């Protein structure tokens, strides 16, 4: 992460200094903006590329919500993860930020551990998303001829590679790949390997998620499990069906962005997949089967 570039937008000098000092010591490249106008100037400057933005919610000129809306409305900036830092923690305030596009929240006051964990996770998410998009560009488009196919996978690496391949069955692979990747990764982590929501939060916070996944992939109770992706083309839609061998979960609460999980480092993927990648998302059985549907629109419609 040492070459990741973080923009800090904070009008309080002491907090600005604390943020910059913690990130600099962790090896990040940082830029600082004292207000919304300055932040927007740095974001739109051609020489700047940012991997994440730490954005103060309340500022005197242009507030954080307005800066966030501008970021998400700009095609060149919209994929940058925004970490909203705020002392406003009511459901209404959080819901406003989620609606505007904030994927991560940091509550004032925060610990250095929480700051670095959430920045590392957001940067990793962005780089993984960019990697998937690049992989989609390189992968052949012949899957548009596919009528039916089934694939098996066990690891996160296999899940990501399969997402980049399978997305090409859809008319817009760039749209589908991130949501499909999320469903496949969930099948590995939460499904077959049985990593519960609270466990993942702990592993992300202490940096041990990769190690735990590696351990569970070799553990006797998990190593025989496989997940399946089936792609089927119908006259008017594509079905991406992901099945795992886990115990299922209470999926209803994850279909929408929730203020209850706004300060967690994960838990947004299903809602993002439903909102951005698929025209319909349906969970079946006990939650270990999910179908993402993509409409096939006729040319000229």
Verbal overview:
- The protein is 43% helix and 19% strand.
- The chain has 10 helices and 10 strands.
- The chain has a 5-stranded parallel beta sheet, sandwiched between helices. A 5-stranded antiparallel beta sheet has the order 6-7-8-10-9, with helices on one face.
Question: What's the SSE blueprint?
Answer:
Layout: E1 5-9, H1 13-25, E2 29-33, H2 36-44, E3 52-56, H3 64-73, E4 82-86, H4 91-100, E5 104-107, H5 112-138, E6 148-153, H6 156-166, H7 173-192, H8 197-206, H9 209-218, E7 227-233, E8 237-243, H10 269-277, E9 280-284, E10 289-295
Parallel strand pairs: 1-2, 1-3, 3-4, 4-5
Antiparallel strand pairs: 6-7, 7-8, 8-10, 9-10
Helix pairs in contact: 2-3, 5-6, 5-7, 6-7, 7-10
């Amino acid at each position: 992460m040492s070459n990741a570039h973080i923009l800090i937008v904070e009008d309080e000098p002491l907090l600005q200094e604390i943020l910059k000092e913690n990130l600099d010591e962790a090896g990040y490249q940082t830029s600082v903006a004292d207000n919304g106008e300055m932040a927007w100037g740095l974001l739109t400057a051609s020489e700047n590329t940012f991997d994440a933005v730490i954005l103060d919610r309340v500022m005197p000129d242009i507030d954080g919500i307005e800066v966030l809306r501008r970021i998400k409305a700009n095609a060149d900036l919209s994929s940058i993860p925004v970490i909203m830092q705020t002392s406003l923690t009511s459901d209404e305030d959080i819901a406003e930020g989620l609606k505007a596009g904030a994927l991560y929240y940091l509550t004032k006051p925060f610990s250095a551990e929480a700051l670095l964990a959430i920045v590392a996770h957001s940067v990793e998410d962005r780089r993984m998303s960019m990697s998937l998009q690049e992989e989609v560009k390189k992968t052949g488009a012949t899957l548009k001829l596919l009528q039916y196919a089934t694939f098996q996978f066990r690891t996160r690496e296999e899940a990501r590679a399969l997402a980049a391949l399978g997305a090409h069955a859809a008319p817009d692979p760039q749209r589908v790949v991130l949501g499909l990747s999320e469903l496949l990764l969930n099948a590995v982590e939460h499904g077959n390997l049985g990593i519960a929501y609270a466990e993942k939060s702990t592993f992300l916070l202490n940096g041990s998620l990769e190690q735990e996944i590696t351990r569970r992939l070799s553990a006797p109770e998990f190593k025989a499990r496989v997940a399946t992706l089936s792609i089927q083309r119908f006259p008017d839609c594509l079905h991406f069906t992901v099945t795992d061998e886990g115990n299922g979960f209470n999926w209803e609460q994850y279909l929408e962005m929730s203020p209850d999980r706004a300060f967690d480092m994960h838990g947004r993927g299903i809602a993002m997949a439903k909102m951005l990648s698929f025209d319909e998302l349906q969970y079946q059985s006990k939650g270990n089967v999910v179908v993402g549907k993509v409409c096939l629109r006729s040319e000229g419609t």
